[in-house]
Design brief:
Elements lengths: L1 H32 L5 H7 L11 H25 L1 H20 L5 H15 L2 H12 L2 H33 L3 H21 L14 H17 L14 H21 L12 H31 L6 H28 L1 H20 L9 E2 L3 E2 H15 L1 H10 L6 H34 L13 H41 L12 H7 L15
Helix pairs in contact: 1-6, 1-7, 1-8, 3-4, 3-5, 3-9, 3-16, 4-5, 4-6, 4-8, 6-7, 6-16, 7-12, 7-15, 9-10, 11-12, 11-15, 11-16, 11-17, 12-13, 12-14, 12-15, 13-14, 13-15, 13-17, 15-16, 16-17
Length: 529
């Protein structure tokens, strides 16, 4: 009886710990997307015209840049110093970044710096929480927990834009969103301190590869800077893009050389199984690219083709976003029954189908239905979102099972870094290409001169010009979503290299690296104070 009571207590503490970790993930995820709904207010505060939206892009990319650049190093630090210590430090940094953002005045660069600090600190919350799941649950029970944590991340993307609009309206300013983060972060710190053990399990303490982390951060940061183009109409890359990409390449080479020679490595694959590990990274990259392209371009479609601007445009996007966490939870459940490969491949192919359907949207898509019942727009977006949600659990489970426990923080970080890099590179490349394509399609169009024309002639000329622009936009978006479908198919090809059935990592070495052998681990690992 005493054994049963201890097991029940341990199970409850594990659920509490992962619940608190998931709450911190949700907090950071909300802020990743919170500016989407209040960009117009930020433009007004910074005295930027609404037709120069590219000038406020650093506010969005700054968060993502910090999120990506610091994640590998902070994930590694959690392996050394423990999940609780790193989570608390990151929450303090997140609060500091929120304060800088809220108090930025009319400085675009101070605002972007605050967002970058938020992203730098918030970037560690997801991989550390995923690693915590790997610490506390044995392999047989881990996939469902990973799906729930992934759902918390996706729930932030669903609620983020609406949360921002609601808090800004309630507090009277978009800056109130970031001031509110201070008490929220403080409450989260208290919960983390109480709920999480000092060290979830005994893993070998190792040094942290600071040099490798900095080199990787420089490489990723330079790549992101190279893809930021304030004038995308003239070229795919900005004037400094070539030099920045060259710098990113040099830093990447130095990183590889350092990792080959260093005794302590940031990405240490000794004891890991390379094939499923890198396959998961490739699939995660493709899924991230598809996700960010959707977040940006579906809202643009709503504004430019459907006449749904502002909050209405965000509501159109929620059809896609609501399906993401649903797919994440189901995907985590299916992994234990079908295996990582089947679920990940199926999810990416389902999302590819969704993007093919979106690419074929007619001008009157709002009036179209499937079988006379299902609205086409809602259904197509839900298919794409559900498919991307399915892959979250299997990809996270694959990398954790392919790496030893001491590397779970780094492995979790690698998956999220690959996904976020896909988000940045995918949206930058496809959006820049799409803008060029739009200008090619409209190069022959001239704004009609209607002065002095009869009213009927004026109306006919303006209607013809508007129809030509709308046709060019539909062509642009159709090609972007078809390209996104191809990206999903490439991701599915990567996922074919994952484990073929539940409980098998691809080799006996992987089985020993990623799972315990004690009988009590079938239900979960014990929490240590």
């Amino acid at each position: 009886m005493a054994v049963i009571e201890r097991a029940a207590t341990g199970s409850a503490r594990r659920r509490l710990a992962i619940g608190v970790g998931g709450a911190t993930v949700l907090l950071a995820a909300l802020d990743a997307y919170v500016v989407v709904g209040v960009l117009t207010d930020i433009l007004d505060a910074l005295h930027i015209a609404t037709n120069r939206l590219e000038r406020v892009t650093p506010v969005v990319t700054g968060f993502l840049l910090g999120y990506i650049a610091g994640m590998p190093l902070l994930g590694s630090l959690s392996d050394r110093f423990g999940r609780r210590a790193v989570l608390i430090a990151c929450l303090i940094g997140f609060a500091a970044g929120s304060a800088v953002t809220a108090a930025s005045g009319d400085s675009i660069w101070l605002l972007a710096s605050g967002r970058a600090l938020q992203g730098l600190a918030g970037g560690a919350l997801l991989p550390v929480t995923l690693a915590l799941a790997g610490d506390l649950w044995a392999e047989q029970r881990r996939a469902g927990v990973l799906g729930v944590v992934g759902a918390a991340q996706e729930l932030g993307s669903v609620l983020g834009p609406l949360y921002g609009v609601g808090i800004a309206a309630a507090l009277g300013s978009w800056r109130g969103i970031f001031w509110l983060n201070l008490p929220l972060a403080a409450a989260a710190i208290v919960l983390v301190w109480v709920a999480l053990p000092k060290r979830a399990q005994e893993v070998p303490t190792r040094k942290t590869d600071v040099v490798g982390g900095l080199l990787l951060a420089v490489s990723l940061g330079a790549a992101v800077v190279a893809l930021y183009n304030p004038d995308p109409e003239r070229a795919v890359l900005p004037p400094w893009g070539g030099w920045a990409l060259a710098g990113a390449g040099v830093a990447a080479v130095l990183f590889v050389v350092w990792e080959m020679r260093a005794r302590t490595r940031l990405v240490d694959l000794r004891g890991a199984v390379p094939r499923p590990f890198f396959a998961a990274l490739g699939a995660s990259f493709c899924a991230g690219a598809a996700l960010m392209v959707t977040l940006v371009d579906v809202e643009l479609v709503a504004q430019t083709l459907l006449g749904r601007g502002g909050v209405q445009g965000t509501l159109v996007l929620t059809r896609f976003l609501v399906a993401l966490p649903v797919g994440a939870v189901l995907g985590g459940w299916l992994v234990g029954r079908l295996g990582e490969r089947v679920v990940a491949v199926a999810g990416l192919l389902v999302s590819a189908l969704g993007y093919v359907l979106i690419a074929g949207w007619p001008a009157d898509v709002l009036a179209r239905q499937y079988l006379g019942v299902l609205p086409r727009l809602d259904t197509d977006l839900a298919i794409a979102g559900f498919g991307l949600g399915l892959v979250i659990g299997p990809l996270s489970a694959a990398v954790l099972r392919a790496t030893p426990p001491a590397q779970h923080g780094v492995a979790s970080s690698a998956v999220v870094v690959a996904r976020m890099m896909g988000m940045l590179i995918g949206v930058a490349a496809l959006t820049a290409w799409g803008l060029h394509r739009f200008h090619e399609l409209t190069a022959h169009l001239n704004i009609p001169l209607v002065f002095g024309k009869p009213p009927d002639e004026q109306r006919r000329m303006l209607d013809a010009y508007k129809a030509a622009v709308q046709a060019a936009l539909r062509t642009e978006y159709r090609e972007i979503f078809l390209a996104t479908a191809v990206i999903c198919v490439v991701g599915a090809a990567c996922a074919l290299l994952l484990s073929g059935r539940p409980g098998r990592a691809g080799s006996d070495e992987a089985a020993g690296a990623g799972q315990g052998t004690d009988r009590d681990q079938a239900e979960g690992r014990p929490l240590e104070a």
